[in-house]
């Protein structure tokens, strides 16, 4: 499925609130917090000229978030950042002064953090980030996981000291349960999706993701003309496209939002012209993108600067995992999890379709940016789908 954005808000400026969240000051704040992390390192940006040639485009770059902060996913930038911001804000209220990120490990702030509990629902990656952030500041975390989250992903969250609550049902039901229990017990919900009356914290989560754009623009030889962005509830796509729009203005790239056909709530929302929930379908292999209701904040951004919306199938995602693990020419091998290569799957589908290419002005001069949003966050599942372990992929083909 493929749909150009026909919303009346398309190409209109971001709201003042969203421009502030995703603008320069917000990105500066996210970078300051990131710099305070002990294991911070910029993630690699890979050029794939051989694959670009196969697809008939001028350049293809992939930002590899599988290397981010030891968590294997871009989500490491969002939940943990929001947790640390919220702890400092609470400390500021109680101490009666502005509290800087450099004070996170101070005794006064640690005492305050120890009395705070952060809760969220997750498909795996966001919960790991919230749990890690809480652990870093000495707070408690309670993570709600639905029936589709693998035991390996649950164990990865629990390693950060989180309390795990398993619920029956899907991701959206776990979101509602996390919000209900947190309200009863006075916990703070750190969600990557938003709903009426709950927008600021998901905005902070999105703000953390702007670091990806900052790093990519520093390394790209020229700004991209197109960016293909995977979506679950839409927060990542909105953060990336929003910050690119702020930084590049009229020269921003065309932003194409890519979802699994089995869980395309943003596509359905774009088609309807308003946020809607979709019926649950069969589980998708792209588990981190299996969401059935869009984030309201994300849609507000994407209705303005999302230029097209599309879906990819199960086999597309698995094919990309294998293609990146066994690259052409001198392209580097990249370990991409089930959801990590959905943006590239979208590009490959568009590149092979004359009508979609024309609609998006994708041609031999196009410069495309893709984000590998996760590495092998479930190594067992990765090996099953690719036929090699992540370690074998890295050993066989180191980047030049």
Any key phrases for this structure?
single chain; 400 residues; Rossmann fold; 2 domains; seven-stranded mixed β-sheet; Diaminopropionate ammonia-lyase; diaminopropionate ammonia-lyase activity; pyridoxal phosphate
Low-confidence stretches: none
The CATH topology name of the largest domain reads: Rossmann fold
Oligomer: single chain
What strand order characterises the main sheet? 1-10-9-8-11-3-2
Q: Number of DSSP helices?
A: 17
Strand percentage, roughly?
5-15%
Arithmetic mean of pLDDT: 95
Counting structural domains, the number is: 2
| Amino-to-carboxy terminus distance | 37 Å
Shape: globular
Give Rg in angstroms. 20 Å
Structural class: alpha/beta
SSE string, helix = H, strand = E?
Answer: EHHEHEHHEHEHEHEHEHEHHEHHHEHH
The CATH class of the largest domain is identified as: Alpha Beta
Quick one: biggest sheet? Answer: 7 strands, mixed
> What's the architecture of the largest domain in CATH terms?
3-Layer(aba) Sandwich
Helix coverage percent: 40-55%
Number of strand segments? 11
Give a short overview:
It comes from Mesorhizobium montanum. The chain contains 17 helices and 11 strands.
Structure write-up:
- By secondary structure, this protein is an alpha/beta fold.
- The chain has two domains: 2-73 and 203-396, Rossmann fold (3-Layer(aba) Sandwich); 79-191, Rossmann fold.
- It has helices at 16-22, 24-35, 49-55, 79-95, 107-114, 125-137, 151-158, 171-185, 200-219, 235-248, 265-272, 296-305, 314-325, 342-351, 354-360, 379-386, 390-396; strands at 2-4, 45-47, 59-64, 117-122, 140-145, 163-166, 188-189, 226-230, 254-260, 308-312, 367-372.
- Helix 9 (200-219) packs across helix 10 and helix 13 (314-325) crosses helix 14 (342-351).
- Keywords: Lyase, Pyridoxal phosphate.
- This is Diaminopropionate ammonia-lyase.
- It holds the Pfam family PALP.
- Residues 39-373 form the Tryptophan synthase beta chain-like PALP domain.
